[in-house]
Amino acid sequence: MKPKQRIDVISAALLLIVGIALLIIPRFIEITNVKTICVVVFSLFAIINLIKFFINRDTKDVEGLITFFANLVTILAIAFVKTENIPMDLSIILMIWIILMSLIKLKKADYYHDRRDRMWKLNIFMLVVFIITGLLTAINLAYDSSVQIIIIGFFFFVNGILQMIDPIVKSLINHG
Known about the structure:
mainly alpha
């Protein structure tokens, strides 16, 4: 496995761990401030991608940097949300983030397609799964705060799995 693929797997594993933590936390702690949890999660995702960009800057892969900026926009949008209408505003912000991330993932699929790499088909499939999962997540944020945290945790868990597929399949293709 190439160093870039290792870093991608590690960052996806960290995202998976964040998703698992969000799935487990509401069982033990009563959380009422979903806004803070979302800011923390998107901040962690932004920091992971910024670190990934700086480690991979020799490969001229700017996906980590663009993802960092998408998360920064999302964090700023969450900061301006009023607490009394958090489910609706959070759904809209999540949809904006999904659109931004979908554009980033589509650009990556286009990169593979331009290089005549068959990975573009897998990336398009993962993009469709990402969008469907994101839509289902955004639709189901109308419940109480503990359910919102679980739903967001499930979304980031699935997102971590989807991000882990690309480097693992690429590594298997190159070594298989």
